[in-house]
Design brief:
367 residues, alpha/beta, Rossmann fold, 6-stranded parallel sheet, 16 helices, globular
């Protein structure tokens, strides 16, 4: 079977490389090729130099020979149609840009899998997004789900949402989580850990609820180290100064370097107001950190409170502080080992490859 993957709108292979995402994102497709579930993968990207970059990566042994990269044309014409005739199934990487995949389906008459890591409209509802953009996003989702053959969501709550909103039948919905490379993200007992610091990795944005985290960290008398970027950095720094909180911004970091950072910490906190399926939480659990999250959709589908992590009862600062206090006062060994097992059993690359293998087999049998 041959698969064409449509990159997120505007995203290039070069950006995958520059942001450190390439090493993680390629793994699923290379594994499916190695296991002969797929015989060819076509990446359709938005980078003018991506095909040259891909050839260089192949020469360096960093990209599988059966992954071909082409730039999506401005309009769907003969060149892309010729490429698509060589594949058996189309898939999206996210909802943004899915319209190109739908047009390709109509042009090439191929089955389409709409895969999303998060529900675009639900995310934008919580952000300062214009009314026109929200309307566009909802119409894009409707267009995609109306024309897809199967939908892949990363959590059960997302699956329920799209089933109800877009009237997709349950048998055409697959829940396949984000995967973690447990050969890269794993505990390192040789590293001495900070005993009194909290680690946060992610966007510095409103939905991440970082002001309440800063207050909770101050109340717990712990330093908060923030890895990531976002528009609220200055406001958050000013707030930390006013409240005498110990806050350090560490900047962004390539994903392949993140395990080294995570293994220096004992505690990881994700205080979000809502989530889809947060990769940073999965990565921290895979590294054996004591993980603390808010009891919201997306986080409470990963953490079982008191078993493989801790959940704050609410998203306010006092609830987060109480969860941090509980995490500090209880033995860490059982929580950490259970977290590692959770990732291995539900979110490891091997497990996810098996799930996609079954999905592609269903498509193959239906064709």
């Amino acid at each position: 079977m041959k698969l064409a993957l449509f990159f997120t709108f505007g995203l290039s292979l070069k950006q995958w490389l520059d942001t450190g995402l390439f090493g993680r994102e390629k793994l699923l497709y290379e594994k499916l090729l190695h296991k002969q579930v797929l015989s060819k993968v076509l990446w359709i990207t938005y980078g003018t130099e991506d095909s040259k970059i891909a050839e260089q990566l192949k020469q360096e042994g960093k990209l599988h020979a059966d992954i071909e990269v082409i730039k999506i044309p401005g309009l769907f014409g003969v060149p892309l149609k010729n490429f698509l005739q060589k594949v058996d199934v189309l898939m999206t990487n996210q909802m943004s840009g899915s319209w190109s995949a739908v047009l390709a389906k109509k042009t090439a008459k191929k089955p389409l899998i709409i895969r999303t890591g998060y529900t675009w409209s639900r995310l934008k509802e919580s952000q300062n997004t214009s009314v026109l953009k929200k309307i566009f996003i909802k119409r894009a989702e409707t267009f995609a789900y109306k024309n897809c053959d199967l939908a892949v969501l990363s959590t059960q709550s997302q699956a329920e949402f799209i089933k109800n909103r877009f009237k997709i039948t349950e048998e055409n919905i697959y829940v396949i989580p984000n995967y973690i490379d447990i050969n890269l993200f794993k505990p390192d007992s040789s590293v001495e850990k900070y005993p009194d610091r909290l680690l946060y990795v992610g966007r510095i944005s409103k939905e991440k609820n970082l002001f309440n985290l800063v207050s909770a960290a101050a109340q717990a008398d712990m330093q908060l180290d923030v890895y990531g970027a976002g528009s609220l950095r200055k406001e958050l720094k000013d707030y930390a100064d006013r409240t005498n909180a110990r806050l350090t911004f560490k900047g962004s970091i390539a994903n392949n370097l993140l395990p080294q950072v995570m293994n220096r910490y004992k505690f990881f906190v994700l205080p979000s107001l809502h989530e889809s399926l947060p990769k940073s939480l999965l990565e921290a659990m895979a590294c054996g950190l004591v993980c603390i999250g808010t009891d919201v959709t997306g986080i409470n589908e990963v953490i079982s409170d008191g078993i493989d992590g801790y959940l704050a009862e609410n998203t306010d600062s006092n609830s987060i502080f109480e969860a941090i206090k509980k995490a500090k006062s209880n033995p860490a060994e059982s929580i950490c080992s259970s977290a590692v097992e959770t990732i291995k059993n539900k979110y490891s690359l091997e497990y996810i490859v098996g799930e996609y293998s079954r999905l592609l087999e269903k498509i193959k049998n239906a064709c």
